[in-house]
Amino acid sequence: MEITEIRISLRDDNKLKAFASITFDNSFVVRGLKIIEGEKGLFVAMPSRKRPDGTYQDIAHPINNETRDSMEKLIISKYEEEKNKLETEAGIELTQE
Q1: What is the pLDDT of residues 27-55, one digit of tens each?
Q2: 59 secondary structure, DSSP code
Q3: What residue numbers bound the domain in which 7 lies?
């Protein structure tokens, strides 16, 4: 299965940097991924829902670390590309908190 499209929607927030959606094989899309600035840098949070006990459960997620790492690298790379494009167009630099 191949990721054929990644869409990024930038956000102006301390921790939530963007939302992402990914398309597989031009036929299946997963929306609601979040790009978050954590203590150790950027990471991708999978779409989730709040459970009755207040915890969150992923709705869709990779089965193994290899797939997760590959997806995360591609998504963060696309985020950086979109952020740089916005900075260039606006003539500004977006800082990471």
Answers
A1: 999 999 999 999 999 999 999 999 999 99
A2: S
A3: 3-90
Q: Contact, 80 vs 44, CB < 8 A? A: no
- In angstroms, the CA 96 to CA 54 distance is 29
Closest by CA to 82, choosing from 24, 38, 42, is 42
- Number of domain units in the chain: 1
* Measured distance CA(5)–CA(82) in Å, rounded: 14
Amino acid identity at 84: N
9-48 b/e (C-beta count within 10 Å ≥ 16 → b): eeeeeeeebbbbbbbeeeeeebeebbbeeeeeebebbbbb
Q: Looking at residue 47, which CATH number applies to its domain?
A: 3.30.1120.40
DSSP states of 68-82 as a string? HHHHHHHHHHHHHHH
Q: What is the pTM of this model?
A: 0.84
